[in-house]
């Protein structure tokens, strides 16, 4: 049975199901778990989704051998990376803020080839995000392995709820329910498990006596009882302000502690998450201090380089360290790849670099004006066929009963708003009474942008019945910065394809609009980016591509303009609420 016949058959069954449900019902659940939708809601059926990266750097700079990789190793918005190992396997997590599911987790056996194996916070009870803005939610997860009890811990901050951790014996399986930490304040907690069995939590918080200037923070430590999952003892300040308090350093955060050759090292981010971001290192003889900074700090930054340099990497910091089985140390950290120091649409990405050691015994990643390299060799390792970097193409025909690992929704699972089983082979989206500008869960299934130059296409069966209903492709930065390539209907009942620029407060500017005849066929939609501008296309059933809007400014969705902690995402969206 081909997809068009399948759509006709299943659409009838799907709409008959609607009619069997009370209009007052928002959702029921059948015995087999297939979601049923309310009778007063229309749906959009998305046939497929393609994403193809086309960045010039990868085309112009092929890797010289199969033991080389590109930085960033996780391109696109994968910020605040943290890493751990059990001696054989490596696990890496990154932030998700207010996207669901939370804290994507990646696995590798060699540090070069990574595969996402799930998300740590994959149920609503683990990820309460109601009412949180896109750049709120989950901040800076830190993953650790405790060899004393062979348990993995992921600790993080839910910015509206506080600090908590989850744990598991099997990172490929389920994680525990959250264990909240009412005695740990501030943000960016991480665990340190000493080889003597003792455990600690290190975090960003207020300095003793309170902050004396804007951005004045401290790093604190408290002991942790592994048996009871509770903290005990006093909260002790390890670092006040940063490397040199006299210089009024800002936003000391993201702490990690290590014990290397009998010495304790405390590594932190400093300078804020923008272009002055850096990583600094201290050492001491005890986890409880005193910690002394390395005189040559920072151990990682790009802040002193010429911003007009070619192919700049900026905002580098928030690092974590891991040791390979060959004894070599490596670092993961976040950084950005802006165009013209302006277009930061990809957000903060995950980079990987080897660690060097100073004569004084301090680890460092870059020194002075060293530039973060885009191509690095990793001896003794070979790339496999499923690399996470470079130009690649992702095609989803929605033939699975479950969304792929790259897909996300906002603030919750949205399982009452989409289905992959109501019409097998299609992603069916309900036209929800929620817009993407609200602090709720819209009918929006999305993925990260991972290239400056890309092409994205989809095909949708959708025929709006009123001017409030629309569906299509949504480029989303946050609640007030979006581009919506939408099929809709005007007040006079004429059908349109339009590009809507969504602004703060849900205000909408119509950038371009064409009258179309949607009929009963499918409409194809396409977005093409050259890094600084977007072109938007559509093709009604049986027709060739038509240009709707060209040279649409990508800066509108850039962090440099919109601010916030996330990058831009692109996905499939439907709403029954007029903008």
Provide a short characterization of the protein structure.
The chain has 579 residues and is mainly beta.
Structural features, described:
This protein is mainly beta and 579 residues long. The chain has three helices and 42 strands. Strands 3, 29, 31, 32, 34, 39, 40 and 41 form an eight-stranded antiparallel beta sheet that branches. β18 (253-260) and β19 (263-270) form a beta hairpin. The longest helix has 17 residues, at 3-19. The radius of gyration is 25 Å and the shape is globular.
> In which range does the helix fraction lie?
under 10%
Rounded to the nearest angstrom, the radius of gyration is: 25 Å
Assembly level: single chain
Query: Which regions have little confidence, pLDDT < 50, spanning 5+ residues?
Result: 1-41
- Strand count, sense and closure of the main sheet? 8 strands, antiparallel
The beta-strand count equals 42
Q: Give the terminus-to-terminus CA distance.
A: 38 Å
Structural class: mainly beta
Q: Strand fraction band?
A: 35-45%
> How many helix segments?
3
Mean pLDDT: 92
> What would you call the shape?
globular
List the topology elements.
Layout: H1 3-19, E1 27-29, E2 35-37, E3 43-53, H2 56-60, E4 68-70, E5 82-85, E6 90-93, E7 99-100, E8 102-108, E9 115-121, E10 138-146, E11 151-158, E12 162-168, E13 179-180, E14 187-193, E15 199-205, E16 218-225, E17 230-240, E18 253-260, E19 263-270, E20 278-284, E21 292-293, E22 300-301, E23 314-323, E24 329-336, E25 349-354, E26 356-357, E27 363-364, E28 375-377, E29 393-396, E30 409-410, E31 418-419, E32 427-430, E33 443-448, E34 453-461, E35 470-478, E36 481-489, E37 495-502, E38 508-516, E39 523-530, E40 533-539, E41 546-553, H3 559-562, E42 569-575
Antiparallel strand pairs: 1-2, 3-29, 3-32, 3-34, 4-28, 5-6, 6-8, 7-30, 8-9, 10-11, 11-12, 12-13, 14-15, 15-16, 16-17, 18-19, 19-20, 20-21, 20-22, 23-24, 24-25, 26-27, 31-32, 33-42, 34-39, 35-36, 35-42, 36-37, 37-38, 39-40, 40-41
């Amino acid at each position: 049975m081909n997809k068009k016949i399948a759509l006709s058959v299943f659409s009838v069954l799907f709409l008959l199901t609607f009619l069997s449900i009370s209009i007052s019902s928002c959702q029921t659940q059948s015995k087999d778990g297939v979601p049923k939708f309310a009778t007063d809601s229309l749906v959009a059926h998305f046939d497929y989704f393609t994403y193809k990266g086309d960045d010039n750097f990868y085309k112009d700079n092929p890797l010289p051998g199969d033991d080389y990789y590109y930085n960033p190793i996780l391109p696109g918005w994968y910020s605040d990376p943290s890493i751990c190992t059990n001696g054989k396997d490596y696990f890496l997590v990154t932030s998700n803020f207010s996207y669901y599911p939370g804290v994507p987790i990646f696995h590798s056996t060699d540090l070069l080839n990574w595969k996402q194996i799930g998300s740590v916070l994959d149920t609503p009870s683990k990820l309460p995000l109601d009412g949180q803005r896109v750049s709120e939610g989950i901040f800076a997860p830190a993953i650790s392995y405790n060899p004393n009890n062979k348990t993995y811990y992921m600790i993080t901050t839910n910015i509206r709820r506080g600090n908590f951790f989850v744990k598991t014996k099997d990172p490929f399986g389920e994680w525990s329910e959250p264990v909240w930490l009412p005695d740990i304040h501030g943000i960016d907690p991480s665990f340190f498990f000493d080889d003597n069995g003792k455990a600690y939590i290190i975090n960003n918080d207020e300095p003793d006596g309170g902050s004396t200037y804007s951005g004045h923070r401290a790093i604190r430590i408290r002991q942790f009882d592994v048996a009871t999952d509770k903290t005990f003892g006093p909260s002790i300040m390890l670092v006040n302000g940063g490397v040199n308090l006299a210089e009024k350093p800002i936003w000391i955060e993201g702490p990690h502690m290590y014990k290397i050759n009998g010495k304790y090292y405390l590594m932190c981010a400093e300078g804020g998450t923008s272009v002055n971001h850096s990583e600094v290192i201290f050492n001491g003889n005890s986890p409880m201090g005193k910690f002394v900074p390395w005189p040559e700090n920072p151990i990682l930054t790009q802040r002193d380089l010429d911003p007009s340099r070619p192919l700049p990497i900026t905002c580098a910091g928030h690092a974590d360290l891991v040791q390979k089985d060959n004894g070599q140390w490596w670092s993961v950290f976040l950084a950005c790849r802006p165009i013209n120091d302006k277009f930061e649409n990809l957000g903060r990405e995950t980079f990987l670099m080897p660690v060097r050691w100073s004569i004084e015994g301090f680890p460092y990643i870059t020194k002075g004006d060293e530039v973060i390299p885009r191509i690095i060799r990793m001896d003794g390792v070979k790339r496999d066929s499923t690399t996470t970097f470079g130009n690649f193409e992702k095609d989803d025909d929605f033939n699975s009963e479950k969304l792929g690992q790259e897909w996300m929704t906002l603030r919750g699972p949205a399982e009452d708003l989409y289905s992959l089983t109501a019409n097998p082979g299609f992603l069916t989206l309900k036209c929800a009474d929620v817009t993407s500008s609200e602090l709720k869960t819209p009918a929006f299934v999305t993925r990260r942008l991972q290239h400056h130059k890309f092409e994205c296409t989809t095909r949708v069966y959708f025929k709006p019945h009123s001017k409030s209903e629309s569906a299509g492709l949504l480029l989303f930065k946050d609640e007030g910065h979006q581009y919506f390539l939408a099929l809709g209907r005007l007040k006079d009942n004429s059908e349109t394809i339009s590009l809507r620029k969504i602004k703060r407060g849900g205000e909408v500017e119509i950038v371009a609009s064409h009258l179309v005849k949607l009929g009963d066929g499918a409409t194809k939609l396409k977005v093409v980016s050259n890094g600084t501008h977007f072109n938007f296309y559509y093709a009604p059933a049986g027709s060739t591509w038509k240009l709707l809007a060209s040279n649409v400014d990508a800066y509108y969705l850039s962090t440099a303009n919109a601010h916030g902690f996330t990058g831009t995402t692109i996905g499939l969206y439907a709403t029954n609420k007029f903008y």
